[in-house]
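fwd from M.: "can u put these together and see what the complex looks like"

so here's what she sent:
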Amino acid sequence: MKYRKPVSATLASTDPGAMSRRNTSGTLGPDIQAKIGKQLRAYYDGLIEPIPERFVELLRRLDEAGGKEAKGRNGAKGSFE
Amino acid sequence: MTVDPGVREAMLAAVPGLRAFAISLSGNVDRADDLVQETLLRALANIDSFEPGTNMSAWLFTILRNLFRSEYRKRRREVEDTDGSYAERLKSQPEQTGRVEFAEFRAALAKLPADQREALILVGASGFSYEEAAEICGCAVGTIKSRVNRARTRLAEFMSIESADDFGPDRATRAVLVGNDQG
């Protein structure tokens, strides 16, 4: 078996063989996919913070200014497509 | 143009996820905030092209992703070895966000090609369907599916390899951090 060492507490499963278990088509076993999914969400959730005040302020300011600033700075390009 | 309160609320509600996506793409919190700001400005300037009732979050993600891509292409022309510096920035995220626990995962994520990384994050973390992710990235649903699959496979490989090589230094880093607390 090619299994070496548990990556971390979260990846070390009760089923060590899972890390190297792959079928011939190269797809991962469901338990490995679940572990990666869990780590990915934990990583991403760690990046989620309350809305920074600068964005609340930005939208409020633009609203009060009638959106002129947004148009002036970016309206001409409009190249987000 | 006055922003409809409902539209403004929907935009603000999308900001935390949008920002997390921007950090994942750019590997840098300051740049991510600039991207989010530019995205909101563009969205407001082009609010007429937003169809009420459709997914505001997906629309904003599309704008941000395209902004990032066009900047990335621009920088690629100016600077060689963009991938290397990107990987370094992504690895240095914990210092900026105050989080160290995902260092290993982040390092593995940084090694993925950009296409695969964004597909994996959109589907696996941001909560979009394959169809929505395909629209955001401007490609076929099948392409997104195969990118996500390849990303998962590569992550699994990187992480099982990394464990043997990096366990020592990683543990040393943790010891230093703990030592600071106690010292």
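replying to her w this: Chain A has a mean pLDDT of 65.
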